[in-house]
Amino acid sequence: MSENVKEILDQLSLTDLLSDCPLAVLVEHQGQAIWANSGFLTMLGMDQLDSEDARVGALMRARESIELSNEQGQSSFLSHQVQPGKDDSAAVMHYFADQTALYTMQQQVDALQTEVEQSRLKDPITGLLTRRAMLLSLEPQVSRSRRYNNSLSVAQMTVEFEPGTDNSSVGMKISQLLKDQLRWADLIGLFEENNFVMVLPETRLEDAEKLAGKLCERLSDIAGVTASHLGITEWRKGDNAASLLQRSHEAMEKASSDQASCAIAS
């Protein structure tokens, strides 16, 4: 560093520089807050630093990300960086930056991502219908049964994976098994990683039970699958898509708790 530059820097006032700093700055010495710039005071709504204020102590001890709420219940989100002194007797600097706009933008991105995921009609890995697609597809089937009194069965299946198994790979094998065993007119969906749903038009409950028994046998041959549980139900007068799915789900839960039965009809 040249002498010229050193002289200029020596003439600068550190407190003047920090006072005008766009960050909120707090100086700590031996565990005590001793000075803060206007940005920090404004952030807490203070006229002058009150080192006894619990919020000051909490901010000094805070992690890198902070949610700060005001009296109106509005939240702001801060990043917190600490610059320790050279030794225990030196001052510690705390820098706080308002990241609310960035955090809000990230929330919006996450919300849009969730919306995109929910609007998908097919699972990207297995190619099976998503929850939304199944609901859209099941309702016309229910309407058809209601109008013509046609048979309609719904089966839900949950599968337990062996610990350490590549669930995606096993899920692909299960998906292929279902496609092989079901007819082209049947609908197969994936609600969760291990929750499969089958809509079986023109299928009575007895036939759906036979299919469930066959699936139980075939699933036991897939490596990585430790157990499978199916719940089956048939359309009844007054049913809609939601009630069919709810009843098949409850039957699946019963099968899951009954170790002696792979499939239960309701």
Description:
The structure is a single chain. This protein has 266 residues and is an alpha+beta fold. It has two domains: 3-104, Beta-Lactamase (2-Layer Sandwich); 120-265, Reverse transcriptase/Diguanylate cyclase domain (Alpha-Beta Plaits, 2-Layer Sandwich), CATH 3.30.70.270. It contains nine helices and ten strands. Strands 2-1-5-4-3 form a five-stranded antiparallel β-sheet, sandwiched between helices. A hairpin with a 2-residue loop joins strand 7 (187-192) and strand 8. Helix 7 (167-181) crosses helix 8. The protein is elongated and about 90 Å long. The model has no long low-confidence stretch (mean pLDDT 88).
Short description:
With 266 residues, this protein is α+β, with helices and mostly antiparallel strands. The chain has two domains: 3-104, Beta-Lactamase, CATH 3.30.450; 120-265, 2-Layer Sandwich (Alpha-Beta Plaits).
Average of per-residue pLDDT values: 88
Sheet with most strands: strand arrangement: 2-1-5-4-3
Rg (CA only): 31 Å
Largest sheet: 5 strands, antiparallel
Shape: elongated
CATH fold name of the largest domain: Alpha-Beta Plaits
The portion of residues forming beta strands comes to 25-35%
CATH architecture of the largest domain: 2-Layer Sandwich
The name of the CATH superfamily of the largest domain reads Reverse transcriptase/Diguanylate cyclase domain
Give the structural class.
alpha+beta
* CATH structural class of the largest domain: Alpha Beta
- Integer tally of domains: 2
Uncertain spans: none
Topology diagram in text:
Layout: H1 3-11, H2 14-19, E1 24-29, E2 32-36, H3 38-44, H4 54-61, E3 65-69, E4 75-83, E5 92-98, H5 100-119, H6 131-148, E6 152-161, H7 167-181, E7 187-192, E8 195-201, H8 205-219, E9 225-234, H9 241-257, E10 263-265
Parallel strand pairs: 9-10
Antiparallel strand pairs: 1-2, 1-5, 3-4, 4-5, 6-8, 6-9, 7-8
Helix pairs in contact: 7-8
